[in-house]
Design brief:
two-stranded antiparallel sheet, 1 helix, 40% strand, globular
């Protein structure tokens, strides 16, 4: 009986911790379980500003800011592009991740849900719960919006880096 009560108390405490919002006073590094800590979400500096998975380093493109929005959503921008560009998806049928001009667009409204193992799932309002931020497994390891499932590329680790 004592073991059962302890387990219930542990679940109740874990649930309250998981329900707390993320600390938006930090920049975060985004890595996933598929590629591990050796690769982080970044943006190209060639004018395309497309997101890609880069070798982890101390670059401003890997410093992601989570700006809280209504209804528990977040806007994701990075230190390299600043607030003028936000993580979005192309509205051309490919639904590929992109860095769009910041605005009131459903592709820039991200839900960040705890997966219970220290990782998070990232979904946006444009594609809904059916698609999650992932990386391709074709050797290019490019960011993609894959069908939602228990895939290691959809388990994102958000590591706090520095105060904003």
């Amino acid at each position: 009986m004592r073991l059962i009560l302890s387990f219930i108390l542990m679940l109740a405490c874990a649930g309250s911790v998981l329900a707390q919002p993320l600390d938006t006073s930090y920049y975060y590094r985004l890595t996933n379980l598929y590629l591990g800590d050796s690769h982080s979400l970044d943006t190209y500096s060639d004018g395309t500003n497309l997101p890609f998975m880069a070798q982890t380093g101390n670059t401003t493109g890997q410093h992601w800011r989570l700006t809280p929005l209504p209804n528990g959503r977040y806007r994701l921008t990075n230190g390299f592009l600043g607030g003028a560009r936000s993580l979005d998806v192309h509205n051309d049928g490919t639904n590929a991740p992109a860095m769009g001009d910041t605005g009131n667009y459903s592709g820039q409204l991200w839900t960040i849900s705890s997966q219970g193992n220290g990782t998070f799932r990232l979904q946006n309002d444009f594609l809904g719960a059916a698609r999650s931020l992932d990386v391709t497994s074709d050797g290019t390891n490019e960011p993609a919006m894959g069908p939602t499932g228990d895939y290691s590329g959809q388990h994102w680790k958000l590591t706090p880096l520095q105060k904003i």
